[in-house]
Amino acid sequence: MPTALLVTSVVNTIQIGSLYALMALGITLTFSVIRLPNFAHAEYVTVGAFAALIVSLSGEVNPIVIMAAAFVVGALVALVSHLVVFKPLEGRNVSLYTLILSSFAVGLILRYILFMIADSFNLFDTRIRIPLQIIYREGALILTNVFAWVAPTSIALVLLLTLLLNGTPLGREMRALANNISLARVIGIPVERVKNYTWILVGGLAGVAGALWGLQTAVSPLMGWVAILSVFAAAILGGLSSFSGTILGAYVVAFSENTVMLFLNFNFGVDLAYKPAIPFFIIIVVLLIRPQGFTELFNRSRDLQR
Amino acid sequence: MPLLELKGVRKDYGGLRAVDDVSLHVPEGAIIGLIGPNGSGKSTLINLIAGTTDLSAGRIVFDGDDISDYSSDQVFRRGIARGYQEPSLYFKMTALDNALLPVKGQRGEDPWYAPWRRRWQAQEENHARSAIDVLEQVRLLQHYDTLASDLSGGQMKLLEIARALMGEPKLLLLDEPTAGVAPKLAYEIFQQIGRLRDDHGITFLIVEHRLEILFDFVDYVYVMHLGNLLAEGSADDIAKHATVREVYFGE
Predict the structure, then answer these.
(1) Residue A81: strand pairing partners
(2) CA-nearest residue of chain B to A170?
(3) What 3-state DSSP class applies to A210?
(4) Which residues pair with B26 in a beta bridge?
(5) Average pLDDT over residues A115-140
(6) Is there a contact between B92 and A185 if contact means CB atoms under 8 Å apart?
(7) A176: nearest CA partner in chain B
(8) Is B108 in contact with A168 (Cβ distance < 8 A)?
(9) The pairing of beta strand B203-207 with beta strand B31-35
(10) Phi, psi at residue B207, to the nearest 5°?
(11) Least CB-CB distance to A194: which of B77, B93, B109?
């Protein structure tokens, strides 16, 4: 495999892996704090991408404004789906399976609302518009300002979220909910409020991830859904409870999808069309060998304990 | 008017009547003992007061309010905190973090404030100072940075009490505060309880099996047997009570 290809694929791994990490942390957080494996998470990403797209079409807009719009819209949609669907269902003491199915339903509803919006305003396969600049060129490797936005922003948000969880009163309460929610109620933690805040954070960060995603590929109502399997694979690698494990998982999945896929393609002629199979393969192998994921590789004292 | 009053409280589990027509008073500032053989309904009664179990019949009045239908978090906010027979702590958090969890109105729990430390740090430091004070009162000061899982059984019980105090309760319900605790520390736990009552006017309702310690500290004792109140009176009266000795000590 030529070096130029290798370098490009590693750059892709960093870019995609950072985005996966940002999305997978949201899934880990909802799973631990809210106790819901939320498949509608995919659509919070898409909703954020569309919000960013629509804002960006209104003219020369600062990328920060685009991200902020994606955060607000993603957070709103997540909070509303909690208040309208998940919270009332929890109140009726339904089983986890019902909750998972309802998260699929919420995702489908959002996805087709987005199809309708994309259809009426002719937004299919449009990119979020920011002026493209090349910031670095060395042989075949070209780094644009898109890379400069996507990777650092995702990594910064991932770090911020980790600090928030480990170093603030909100994070302390979220960890408490993840560990033992009935005890949290009895000792006076405002459980419902902390849950709402968790949804706001999760939805907002998913929205920003969508906006960043839409900077590098075209925005489409299916984009979140297409990414969600890779993202779930990352979260499962992290054992659905460990932040550090999830981040590592995200880069492992991205590395397999990019560098390993290219390697297989170049050396063994494996068709690139098999790329979507990689996350499935990873999920199955992990569940067979290490059902607990990467969790125990890290000191868990500050993670989301179950 | 008593701080806590139970009127004809009953709890049925299917055909089983766990608590049957229990009425009792807890005056403000008192330490009240609740004793009885295993399965007599003491822990159920604590759960009923704390709102973790629903009443089948009867009323619970606390500080002038009818709290019969309150959920556990409403009961806590109204001023009743509790400790458990098995210590219920966040074992992967430090003693200090455990104590800080119940504090009301923390600015840093709001997502708009949380990312900016400057906006909540001063308040957090104040809370941490009062948490340190409380930990000192229960003799856990040198363990403030210890993970709860690394504390001894008795220290866990004390941390539960410290955490409850951080919610500024009027009444503390304790279910066997000395269960699984070494005898010397067990006596110390009751000394702390006595001190908290004397210094802070906190009222206690305590389920306890170690009568030799309990009787040194309580103002009044209720005895339960098979879901009913069997007897009540001062520690001396109960120690001499013939029926109590029969069901409790098998004499």
Answers:
(1) none
(2) B109
(3) helix
(4) B4
(5) 80
(6) no
(7) B90
(8) yes
(9) parallel
(10) -85, 130
(11) B109
b (16+ CB within 10 A) / e for A87-96: eebeeeeeee
How many whole angstroms separate alpha carbon A168 and alpha carbon A186?
21
Q: What is the mean pLDDT of residues B188-215?
A: 91
Name the residue ranges covered by the structural domains of chain A.
Answer: 3-223
pTM, whole model, 2 decimals? 0.87
Exposed e or buried b per residue across A245-261, where buried means at least 16 C-beta atoms within 10 angstroms of its C-beta: bbbbbbbbbbbbbbbbb
- pLDDT tens readout for residues B205-251: 999 988 889 999 999 999 998 888 888 888 888 888 878 777 776 65
Domains, chain B: 4-249 (3.40.50.300)
Q: Does the pLDDT of residue A182 top 80, yes or no? A: yes
Q: What is the pLDDT of residue B46?
A: 93
Q: Is B77 on the interface with A (CB under 8 A)?
A: yes
Which residues does chain B have within 8 Å of residue A176's beta carbon, measured at their own beta carbons? Answer: 90, 93, 101
pLDDT at A215 over 90: no
d(CA A29, CA B117): 22
pLDDT surpasses 80 at A127: no
CB contact under 8 A, A187 and B110: no
Q: Measure the CA dihedral A29/A30/A35/A40, to 10°.
A: -150
CA atoms within 13 A on the CB side of A11: 18
Annotate B217-230 with b (16+ C-beta within 10 A) or e (fewer): bbebbbbbbebebb
User: How far is the CA of B17 from the CAs of A246, B23, B75, B207, B234, in angstroms?
Assistant: 49, 15, 24, 20, 27
Between B99 and A303, where is the model more confident?
Answer: B99
